[in-house]
Amino acid sequence: SCENLHGHNFHVRINAQGDNDADSLVIDFVLISRLAAGICADLNDKVLLPANSDAVKIEQRDQLLHISSYGKQFVLPEHNCCLLPLGNTTAEMLAWYIGERLLESLQQQGAAANIGELEIAVEEADRQWGVCRRVLTHGD
């Protein structure tokens, strides 16, 4: 079913577990916080739309997004929206998306080597979290 158009204020929690490096660190908190803040900034104050949804159809015309879902129609300015490569924008899927982007950024920085498990949790309402946990292997 389709809910009415509504918004959320999300909170993101990150848990990285693994082996300490020579400096007794699993991950540099400053680095992971900066990378996560950048990912969240891309999503902040945007209408988050699932670009890969079977239930949500999105057409771009004249800098507007024409959105239809379950018989409802919306037209939004494209610059106010963020199209995500997801089938749905649930807290669980947002946690997965943020985790994938964060892991990619950490790997590009050469900072993922000691992480054995990366957990991202997205809170969409008081004490309602969607969690994505990824166990990393040496090849990740």
Briefly, what is this?
This protein has 2 helices and 8 strands. With 140 residues, the protein is α+β, with helices and mostly antiparallel strands. The strands form 3 sheets. The protein has a 3-stranded antiparallel β-sheet with strand order 1-7-8, with helices on one face. A 3-stranded antiparallel β-sheet has the order 3-4-5, with no helix packed on it.
Structure description:
This protein is of the alpha+beta class and 140 residues long. The protein contains 2 helices and 8 strands; from the N terminus they run E-H-E-E-E-E-E-H-E-E. It has helices spanning 29-43, 91-108; strands spanning 11-18, 47-50, 57-61, 64-69, 72-77, 81-84, 115-125, 128-135. The strands form 3 sheets. It has a 3-stranded antiparallel beta sheet with strand order 1-7-8, with helices on one face. A 3-stranded antiparallel beta sheet has the order 3-4-5, with no helix packed on it. Strand 4 (64-69) and strand 5 (72-77) form a beta hairpin. The mean pLDDT is 93.
